[in-house]
Amino acid sequence: MNELRPVRALALAERAKRAAAVAGAHADDVDASGRFPQEALDAMRAELLLGLQIPVALGGEGASTAELAEVCSVIGQACAAAGMIFAMHQIKVSSLVAHGQGDAWHEGFMRRIAAEQLLLASATTEGGIGGNLRNSICAVEVADGICRLEKDATVISYAEAADAILVTSRAKADSAPSDQVMTVFLKGQYSLDKTHHWDTLGMRGTRSDGFLFKGEAPACQILPKPFAEIAAQSMLVYSHILWSGVWFGIAADAFARAQAFVKAAARKSPGSVPPGALRLAEASNLLQLVKSNILAALQQYEAAREDETRLSSMSFAVSMNNVKIASSQTILDIINHCLLVCGIMGYKNGTPYSLGRHLRDAHSAQLMISNDRILGNTSTLLLMNRQDTSLLG
Ligand SMILES: Cc1cc2nc3c(=O)[nH]c(=O)nc-3n(C[C@H](O)[C@H](O)[C@H](O)COP(=O)(O)OP(=O)(O)OC[C@H]3O[C@@H](n4cnc5c(N)ncnc54)[C@H](O)[C@@H]3O)c2cc1C
After folding, report:
1. Pick the CATH number of 4-118 from 1.10.540.10, 3.40.1190.20, 3.30.40.10, 3.40.50.300
2. Which UniProt keywords apply (predicted)?
3. Residue nearest to atom 36 of ligand 1 (CA)
4. Measured in angstroms, how far is the CA atom of residue 295 from the centroid of ligand 1?
């Protein structure tokens, strides 16, 4: 098994690169016309990337979190919107893998995801609640084995392209806002009436329109664990690591463009170091910081993943929050450095050094669960929890 692992890793890298090449070929058009990256999704399906994380016993490949983060980065380097769609899908799958095993319906659904390469979307954001995903206004109603849910879902990425949407709500009509569940609704079990049009600065291809969601499905499709546990033990950690993988990918591609610019300048004036080289070195330093931060988070998650107490601990939450804050802020500095290196050739669209799309896409990172909201959460945790200062992991 161990001997096969590098072979599979190589093959996975090749598959991700092939999907990324397709995504990259359409990235500027996806961005300019604000359309869903259908070609990229078709390529991910052709490479069987949507079922990567599903356990082998259920027809998937049991990919590790590091492997998923790498695919996010590789696709994100080519087209940030396509990378983010892959990441958001895998974040939903992570909740099924962590909390749906042992449950007949959810195991059957995981088999279908792997076999049919189904695409999953997420509806946590709600009108009146915003990005506070640990609160819901809407409530699921269960009667005679059927659950019904109506939600003012102000942002659902690629809702119309998805094969299923995982929706959070209060557990019952009389539940407190934080007593939540998450339910899988399959295409055909819901209607979507568009309420908000996604015409944004960046991440235009995620097509994160707003909808009035109305769903009706067998009650067994409600995930068996409270959403509080799902959020703490799988969703937040996968969100922060896989989003960071995509954001690292955006910054890495910006860096590659700036490096190509400096090399071209060096070729034009042999014997002298181009002025942008120093700034490129600074960008390299920052890129390595983001990478180290993600690698440390992956290591920490691998050490904690089998231990529910550790996963739900304050120090783990502080650490994962910090990963998100650091990646989402630092990529803006990196891309800005790259823009200064490339100058007008980076500022203009349609050059090999263009960075406008990167910069616009990267600006979504601070808002995707507002950094202020996350810092507010961390500051509360730090009133009770000591900062981790050990270098032993
Ligand atoms: C590309 C992209 C794709 C997305 N896809 C989806 C999706 O598929 N499904 C989905 O459900 N959502 C999705 N979202 C929504 C996202 O995850 C956030 O929930 C949403 O962007 C938050 O919206 P908001 O900024 O209006 O709300 P809020 O989080 O309410 O923030 C509004 C403002 O209030 C401030 N604020 C609010 N609360 C606090 C606090 N406690 N402490 C300090 N400041 C605070 C913040 O600084 C912020 O400026 C997506 C977002 C993006 C950018």
Report:
1. 1.10.540.10
2. FAD, Flavoprotein
3. 373
4. 26
Give percent of the chain with pLDDT exceeding 70. 98
Q: Is the CB of 85 under 6 A from ligand 1?
A: no
**What topology does CATH give the domain 227-384?**
Butyryl-CoA Dehydrogenase, subunit A; domain 3 (1.20.140)
Q: Is the CB of 139 under 6 A from ligand 1?
A: no
**Under CATH, domain 122-221 is a member of which superfamily?**
Butyryl-CoA Dehydrogenase, subunit A, domain 2 (2.40.110.10)
Which residues belong to CATH 2.40.110.10 in the chain? 122-221
pLDDT in tens, 194-246: 999 999 999 999 999 999 999 999 999 999 999 999 998 899 999 999 999 99
User: Distance (Å, rounded) from C-alpha 336 to C-alpha 334?
Assistant: 5
Which pTM was predicted? 0.96
Pocket test for ligand 1, best of 86, 125, 321 (most atoms within 8 A of CB): 125
Tell me the per-residue pLDDT of 293-344, one tens digit each, with 9 for 90 and over: 999 999 999 999 888 888 888 999 999 999 999 999 999 999 999 999 999 9
d(CA 371, CA 7): 39
